Amino acid sequence: MKDLQELVLMIVSPLVTKPDEIHLEVVESEDFLEYNLTVAPDDIGRIIGKQGRVAKAIRTIVYSVRTNGPKKVRLNIIDGK
């Protein structure tokens, strides 16, 4: 789980203009490990990309990582307005 957090931060950090405002919170539920990503309001467009292509690419990489146990990983990009 710690490695997956570092992976998300490593992918997202070069994409934003304010890397010090990146917050990644992990919420564990019955079926999922939810990673809630919040960035500066100016950077939300950079993370989502045109037609959501960047967000989809990030999710593809994160979802391909094997986790221990039956829980699935979910990455939520939260608009921090």
Automatic annotation (TrEMBL):
Biological process (GO), any one: peptidoglycan biosynthetic process
Any one Gene Ontology molecular-function term assigned to this protein's record: RNA binding
UniProt keyword terms in alphabetical order: Cell shape, Cell wall biogenesis/degradation, Chaperone, Cytoplasm, RNA-binding
GO cellular component terms given for this protein: cytoplasm
One matching Pfam family: KH_KhpA-B
Compartment(s): Cytoplasm
CDD domains: KH-II_YlqC-like (cd22533)
Keyword Ubl conjugation: no
Keyword rRNA-binding (UniProt): no
Entry-linked SUPFAM superfamilies: Prokaryotic type KH domain (KH-domain type II)
Gene3D superfamilies: 3.30.300.20
Annotated family: Belongs to the KhpA RNA-binding protein family.
Subunit structure: Forms a complex with KhpB.
Record function comment: A probable RNA chaperone. Forms a complex with KhpB which binds to cellular RNA and controls its expression. Plays a role in peptidoglycan (PG) homeostasis and cell length regulation.
Protein name: RNA-binding protein KhpA
Gene name as annotated: khpA
